[in-house]
Every structure is written in structure tokens, then in C-alpha cells.
Specification:
mainly alpha, 0% strand, 4 helices
């Protein structure tokens, strides 16, 4: 097997040295905004993963509903609430959206425990809706923070 060691020079313009990849850089004034947006989006994905995986487990084992359509409908309510919460939140500032999302996430994180203790499908449905709303608000915050403060 023959290997052409100097093949990289054939694919460049005459006399130019090929570009080397650089470490990504960010202006110092953008770092705090990027870190906050990253935290918001990471929180959204963690909330979604916990809610959907634990939600299916709670719906199947703890909440007294043997109907798979009801259990699936309550899990699908996560997506519906996520879409409905985003529409009015677009007009708010990212700071307010993340505060509202955090309040909803904190309050809805205790509701599944109550639904397990009380074996209540209604409380479980409220928990799914609250988690869906918090998820969409955190994602909206992360996107808006990066978009509103992007360099020109």
C-alpha cells in the first residue's frame, strides 16, 4: 500500500498553507450569557429525561389506571403543555421566563411524589403538564439568551 505523504499540498491553492483548526473562542462579555443559556437548556433536557422516564414508570406501576391509552395520554400531555406554554412566553424577557420556568419546575417536581402517595391520576396529570411547561420555558430562555446577545 502506497501512501502519498505530501497529498495535502495538492488540495490547496498554490503556495498557501492549509488552515489548521483553532480552539473555539468566545468574547469575554458573552461568556456569562452563554453559561446561563447552557444551564437553562441543560436543565430542560434533564427535566425532560426525568419526567418522561419516571413518568412512564409512575403511570404504569403506581397510578391506579389499567388503561394504556389514559397513561399514554397523560405522558403526551407533557408535549401539549410544552407547546402551549411557549406561545405567551415569547413576549417576556429571558430573565422572567427562566424565573417562571424555575418556579413551575420546582412546584411540579414534588407533585409526582404526591400522586404516588395519594395514587391520584389527576395529580400525575398536573405534574406532567407542569414539567412540560417548565421544559419549554427553559429551552426558550436558552435560545432567546443566545439569540438576543449574539455578536454582530
Amino acid at each position: 500500500m502506497l501512501v502519498d505523504v505530501d497529498a495535502r499540498h495538492r488540495f490547496t491553492r498554490s503556495g498557501q498553507v492549509p488552515r489548521r483548526p483553532r480552539v473555539p473562542a468566545m468574547p469575554n462579555d458573552q461568556f456569562a450569557i452563554f453559561a446561563a443559556a447552557t444551564a437553562a437548556v441543560t436543565t430542560a433536557y434533564v427535566l425532560r429525561a426525568m419526567t418522561l422516564s419516571l413518568g412512564a414508570q409512575i403511570a404504569r406501576e403506581v397510578v391506579p389506571s389499567s388503561n394504556a391509552l389514559v397513561n399514554g395520554g397523560t405522558i403526551a400531555l407533557f408535549a401539549v403543555a410544552s407547546a402551549l406554554a411557549t406561545i405567551p412566553a415569547r413576549r417576556l424577557t429571558p430573565r422572567r421566563v427562566v424565573l417562571v420556568g424555575a418556579a413551575i419546575a420546582i412546584s411540579s417536581s414534588g407533585v409526582p411524589t404526591m400522586s404516588v402517595y395519594l395514587r391520584s391520576l389527576i395529580l400525575y396529570t398536573i405534574a406532567q403538564a407542569g414539567s412540560g411547561m417548565a421544559h419549554s420555558l427553559f429551552l426558550l430562555t436558552g435560545r432567546n439568551a443566545c439569540y438576543d446577545h449574539r455578536p454582530a
